[in-house]
Design brief:
This protein has 231 residues and is mainly alpha-helical. 55% of the residues lie in helices and 5% in strands.
């Protein structure tokens, strides 16, 4: 990426803006063809030159060589918020939605191979997280789509459902699950599916109750479009 940025004459601020909007898939980064190995300029067929996105895909092409359980675990973790580590017990509950069990050996292998990060504070149980770059590769190459996430999306939509007239509903406690829904919103915003509409509508209600009306409106408007499309 540094080579592409230097070639394009971009500033750090411009690069940062590109990454925040389209990550490594920005057209400006894709159009720069860069050497990916030593003596790349001397190769007559340019086999060691590629753009950023192709180079990243080449590096992580080994994801297809993982066994089925490891792939499924990566697919499920890719649905979770990337900045928040998850403990093994919570991860087991998450994976249970897809009937994935006996994960200890698979987790150890994924950590050893660098697909997952294992973090453990002194005196605490280990937690696991996925680097955003790896999550991007997993989503694109292991078919982490809305159909795969359907049951989980419905579950998260239930967790963030809030009625201000229901005395049993605690707005602050329900808001603790909002980051789960925001990750799904980022992944499946363009999907015209009923469970996506429910999720976005409930997200809009949460933002509305906190007075964040602009975000609430965006969620509700997208939910409405999906409803009109689906029904």
């Amino acid at each position: 990426m540094a080579k592409a940025v230097a070639s394009a004459g971009l500033s750090f601020e411009e690069l940062q803006a590109m990454i925040e909007t389209q990550f490594i898939h920005h057209d400006t980064l894709r159009e720069e063809i860069i050497p990916t190995g030593r003596h790349g300029d001397s190769l007559p067929d340019n086999t060691k030159r590629s753009n950023i996105e192709d180079y990243i895909r080449l590096i992580f092409n080994q994801v297809h060589g993982l066994n089925d359980k490891s792939k499924d675990i990566l697919r499920c973790i890719a649905l979770l918020p990337l900045a928040t580590p998850i403990g093994r017990e919570d991860l087991k509950k998450h994976l249970a939605l897809w009937n994935i069990e006996d994960i200890a050996h698979a987790l150890t292998m994924l950590v050893e191979r660098g697909w997952l990060d294992r973090v453990q504070a002194p005196g605490q149980k280990p937690q696991y997280k996925m680097h955003p770059l790896i999550a991007d590769v997993v989503v694109r190459h292991l078919e982490v789509n809305a159909e795969f996430a359907e049951a989980y999306t419905k579950r998260v939509a239930e967790l963030i459902f809030y009625e201000n007239t229901n005395p049993e509903h605690n707005l602050i406690e329900i808001n603790n699950y909002k980051h789960l829904a925001e990750r799904l919103s980022d992944l499946f915003w363009e999907e015209n599916r009923e469970e996506a509409s429910d999720l976005l509508g409930n997200l809009g209600n949460l933002e509305d109750n906190f007075g964040i009306y602009q975000k609430a409106a965006a969620y509700h408007e997208r939910a409405l479009v999906i409803c009109e499309t689906v029904f």
